[in-house]
Amino acid sequence: MKLAARLARFSLLLSSTVILLWLAGCGGYVSSSGTGSAPRTPTGLAAAAANAQVNLTWNTSSGATGYYVKRSTSSGSETQIAAPSTTAYTDNAVTNGTKYYYLVSAVNSAGESANSAEVSATPTAPITPPAVPTGLQATAGNAQVNLTWNASAGATSYHVKRSTTAGSGYTQIGAPTTANFADSGLANGTTYYYVVAAVNTAGESGNSNQASATPIDAAVDVTISIDPAKTKPISPYIYGINFYSGNPGVSPLLTFDRAGGNRWTAYNWETNASNAGSDYIYNNDSYLSGS
Question: pLDDT tens digit string along 147-162?
């Protein structure tokens, strides 16, 4: 009688007790009741990053009626964030530039499977074409035009376009990676019109403002500066002296003897405006110019 009662009690206890089973190869325990078994661990979990979201997909687990999606910003510390009934989930509660780690487990009335393999993804904002360049300027040179403009945020290069018609007919002539370009081999006297577009992997911006220039072969602009405080007297050995030829005792270094100081000799230092006295005896009259 006592043996029969003990068997009855063991039968009741067995039917209501949850038994933990180790599933070989799954790396964890699953819960199971006496009336069924938990589903298999999900496989094939994949995470695809997008703009402010992560899209998760995985393979169906046999016997699952739902799934637990778990997330963390550090590996190995995931907590449940959703319980979808399908094998896909979109996580919109994420921030661009932050890396997220995910796990998925399968569930049914008998319990929960072990966690899937861990995956990660970092959502990012989509790349867009750069801003339109500003401040384009064209400076003419000899058979050349030098272009400069303001750099565009996000640009990896620029398309320089030229035309000989204002406002239309542009064709690309260069693709520099910096905000300047020298267009050489041009015809002097011809007006050239330019626009610039910024470029990256997402595409090309609109055209900049138009700038124009006309290359020309101009003479070199030379500026000579004279400091009046740094003058020196003129040596008579260079320009001669105002004496008549035959003057005795003249230095042998004298270059020439100025015979006369009147206007027609072109050697006089002070111009005689009237030349009234002819200066034959080397005397100026009282009508001297101020020059």
Answer: 999 999 999 999 999 9
Instruction: Take residue 283 and report the two structure tokens written for it.
Output: 């005397």
Q: Decide if pLDDT at 29 tops 90.
A: no
- The SS3 assignment for 115 reads coil
CATH architecture, range 134-213: Sandwich (2.60)
For the chain, which residues make up each domain, given as ranges? 43-121, 134-213
* pLDDT band at 41; cut points 50, 70, 90: very high
pLDDT at res. 36 = 84
63 contacts 40 by C-beta, under 8 angstroms: yes
Q: Which residues of 82-105 are buried (b: 16+ CB within 10 A; e: fewer)?
A: eeeeebebebeebeeeeebbbbbb
Partnered with residue 161 across adjacent β-strands are: 172, 195
CATH superfamily of 43-121: Immunoglobulins (2.60.40.10)
Exposure letters 176-209 (e unless 16+ CB within 10 A, then b): eeebebebeebeeeeebbbbbbbbbeeebbebbe
Please give the average per-residue pLDDT across 32-45, as a whole number.
Answer: 83
What is residue 253's predicted lDDT score, i.e. its pLDDT? 59
CA angle 110–116–118, rounded 5-degree value:
150
